Here is the input.
Amino acid sequence: MGDFHWYPGHMAKAKRAIAEDLKLIDVIIELTDARAPLSSRNPDIDVMANGKTHILVMSKSDLSEQSGNTAWTEYFKSTGLDAACVDLRTGAGMNRVKSLLSEAASKKHEKDKKRGIRMQRPLRALVCGIPNVGKSTFINSMAKKSVAKTGNKPGVTKGKQWITVSNGIELLDSPGLLWPKIEDERAALNLALLGSMNDEVIDLERLTSELIGILNSGYPQILSEQYGVYDEDDTEAVLSKIARCMNMLQKGGLPDRERAKQFLIDSFRGGKLGRITLELPG
Ligand SMILES: Nc1nc2c(ncn2[C@@H]2O[C@H](COP(=O)(O)OP(=O)(O)O)[C@@H](O)[C@H]2O)c(=O)[nH]1
Ligand SMILES: [Mg+2]
Here is the structure.
């Protein structure tokens, strides 16, 4: 996780690669993480998508709150963007994505017909998004077999292959990589919590105290039910209690707060804390 270094050379290369792919396609399927759908988007994609069908897929919606999922879907709809919440592990929500693609295919078909084009080529789509939002998993799920490697290392897929999704709809088998747009500290923290950013950018200390703050203010039941922590604002005290609860002890029986920090962050990233939404519209 976080093994991609966002230095300018890579950014420029990623941008060029996307620009090349955009020439080939009719539809952009943009993936974002449902736990922080705004922080995990790159708004530049709106400009890139100009003139094309643009579908926003909020992945990992099994890890975000249901109420947040609804709020975000409505929010994006109000901005004119078709959005769908999916759980890529089970395929829940993928039917909506497929019906949005079918709609786009029918529109293209009609347009081609009006122009008198007889040899109609398929509707072509590109999956894109920042690291770790589920691009490879999405492509695999569409292909229904493992054709693209999943994992946390961006850029494992090479070459250009098309996957036939359904009659007249094709998907480029390698995703377009976008860099995260870090507009403020809030976005940086969200991205770091999601594991979509190099872990060295924000230190573990800062990240943990942020997460504990979020849990305390919005999800106190998670701290109490999972670790027996009640009404405790002090980060170090919370970490001590978690360490004791998880039996993470140093020599002499002192709680190992360093281990507890990494454990808490990993638990959040893996969805083990329960459903948490980091940001809401507005
Ligand atoms: N719980 C959950 N995990 C997901 C979902 N989509 C992807 N993942 C996991 O997120 C990690 C990153 O996914 P991957 O497809 O490699 O992301 P990419 O970097 O955008 O290609 C993997 O461990 C996936 O199993 C989802 O909808 N729900
Ligand atoms: Mg990938």
User: Anything to note?
Assistant: The chain is about 45% helix and 15% strand. The chain has two domains: 8-177, 203-269.
